[in-house]
Amino acid sequence: MDDHWRELVTVAMLGTDRRDPPEPVGPLADLVADTVRAAPSERMLAQVAACVAVRRAGVLPGPPVDCLVGPAPDERPLCVPAAVDRWHHITVSWPVLEDEWMLTLISNGWRLAPELVALVLRRHRRDPVRRTRAEVACGPLASWLVDQLPELAAPANQVAPSPESIGELPELPIPPGLAVLLTASGEESGRALRVGIESGQLGPSHRAVLINLLARVRPDALSDLAEALETVDQTSTGYGLAIVLADLANTRHQMLDELNPY
């Protein structure tokens, strides 16, 4: 039957005006025997229809496939859509905030939204600490998805992190002169940064340590701190830096607010 079908395909490509359809063989000859079909094209169509019917009738069903079993239930509520959007934003614009985002999500009892699970597992595949946090945030869905997509699995020889490192934010280098602002109020720290930027004592060369500072100042200081940075004199050479830092402060403030459990 397969050889005959290939001959029919050849004739179909060449055209029955250039080659007659092959003579049917076996039971197919009795099935399409019809002297009324005098034209080669008519005989060709009859054979094609008969071959298709025979070929389909010979198809056997494959072995049964086990039903896909879903992941174990996770009773934690999903994080809100705003938090999902915030994760996308900070991983692009302010990656220094991602550790706090993940730890806050976990400590406040949220579950990572399903649309982020594969992204987070792939992003932190080779980072033992962040990978462990991601698995906690994902819950049972993490191991289930890895079973379906082995390329998301962590390296087999990856060393397990210490429990202390999982629950703590990594230390960021902050000079002692700025470290005193970590526990100051937003008004105090904002005034200090505004004066430092406007006077030129703080400039673009301090950008990295200032970002570290704003990523670790007390959360209740962020709103006042951002407001103070937004009032930096626009004629100051550090105005652009102040606006960037204000955006970081506002982003972190909104991030923590979106993950608030209340």
Protein described:
The chain is mainly alpha-helical. The protein has 3 domains: 56 residues; 87 residues, no CATH class; 83 residues. The chain is built from 14 helices and no strands. α5 packs parallel to α7, α7 packs across α8 and α13 runs antiparallel to α14. It is elongated, with a radius of gyration of 34 Å.
Q: Please give the count of helices.
A: 14
Number of domains: 3
- Principal-axis shape: elongated
Mean pLDDT: 90
The number of distinct β-strands equals 0
Helix proportion: 55-70%
Radius of gyration: 34 Å
Beta-strand percentage?
under 5%
What structural category arises from helix and sheet content?
A: mainly alpha
Q: What is the N-to-C order of secondary-structure elements (H for helix, E for strand)?
A: HHHHHHHHHHHHHH
What characterizes the major β-sheet?
Answer: none
Terminal CA distance reads 70 Å
Low-pLDDT stretches are none
Give keywords.
single chain; mainly alpha
Secondary structure blueprint with pairings:
Blueprint: H1 2-14, H2 27-32, H3 40-57, H4 81-93, H5 98-107, H6 114-123, H7 128-138, H8 140-148, H9 163-167, H10 176-179, H11 186-199, H12 207-214, H13 222-230, H14 239-258
Summarize the structure.
This protein is mostly helical and 262 residues long. The protein folds into three domains: 2-57; 81-167, no CATH class; 176-258. It is 57% helix and 0% strand.
